[in-house]
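At this stage, I put together a protein sequence along with its fold in token form, as given directly below:
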Amino acid sequence: MRGYLLVLAVTLVAGLLWSQNARPSDVRPGDAPYTPTKLEWAALELQIRYGHDFGPGKHSSLRFQPENDG
């Protein structure tokens, strides 16, 4: 039983050390922190409050999407 616990502990520590030493090239694009702009927050708020999808059979919808805020 102690042998299994020792193997488990060594495996966990090795995995932790390996994950901390990951090179920046190993980081996937979605892993980086992201902070939305004020325009994106406003579009989200408008979409939540006033956006409406009239259903798949209809040919109109009301959506708020952030465009270039430059």
